Amino acid sequence: MMMISTLIKSLTLFLCLALSVGFYTLVERKVLSYAQLRKGPNKAGFLGIPQPLADAMKLFTKETTKIQKSMFILYNISPVLATSIMFITWMLYNTPANQNTIIKLSIMLFIVISSLNVYTIMLSGWASNSKYALLGAIRAVAQTISYEISMALLIMSILLISLNFNMEKTSISQMPTLWMMFILPLIFSAWMITMLAETNRSPFDLAEGESELVSGFNIEYGSGEFALLFIAEYGSILFVTVLTATLMLKGSFNTINLTQMVKIMTLAFTFLWVRATFPRMRYDALMSLTWKTFLTLTICSVTMLITHNNI
């Protein structure tokens, strides 16, 4: 009975995440359309609200394309792995579906799980047996690995402030006011830019630049497999907004209240606003930013915090 109950809760959480991703994409299309002085989805139902459900129905009922020379097992398992990794990440969040889950080292587990996304991207591009997909996968892996270093050092900075590995008890706002005035804006700005690059969002979506790479590593995917990759990407974005609200904006990781929802929605809108505003960077500028700027900044912040804590 316990196994059945756990399975039902997990499926409920997955369905809620899929619905959240669907309606987040609807908000994105609306924001981008109004930024470009057009209406966006408005034909399916009232104000186009059922549009994500129509898109999901179309994708999951569409015939799956079979790539003749692809590595069949890896090609088909990669989207499932990507979605599973995103789902496991969300298991760190204490929702009604996993209220009894208490992980003392949840920050470390998040770093470990997020680093696995590289393998799903590489497998998707390589197993497709397409030069376009492989080139997109190589660029995505190089970008993700580079920005994971900055992300890990930024998280280390936060851990040196809170001296706790539990997400619920970790917050940069626990630092003295004088230090926050100088370090918080730098760390927060670097964190937001790193998260944009880590989740392959504009202006750092070099892995999926449609005009240059023909959608990148997922070019050979369609129907339900593409939908799974889509859910994995946007589910990670939503988790990042919750994590940022907790670590940087003194939010709560285990409870939902009005203040927390406003913080999460503001951060989620920021991802959309950045995509509608900024042009895509050149790839060499993208890599130069993390190795020459963020790496120096994060190492300096970690060194200052170690000195401050007399470690």
From TrEMBL:
InterPro entries: NADH_UbQ_OxRdtase_su1/FPO (IPR001694), NADH_UbQ_OxRdtase_su1_CS (IPR018086). It is an enzyme of class 7 (translocase). The chain crosses the membrane at residues 72-93, 105-127, 147-165, 177-197, 226-249, 290-307. Its EC number is 7.1.1.2. One of its GO terms (molecular function) is NADH dehydrogenase activity. It is a multi-pass membrane protein. HAMAP family: NDH1_NuoH. This is NADH-ubiquinone oxidoreductase chain 1. It comes from Bugula neritina. The gene is ND1.
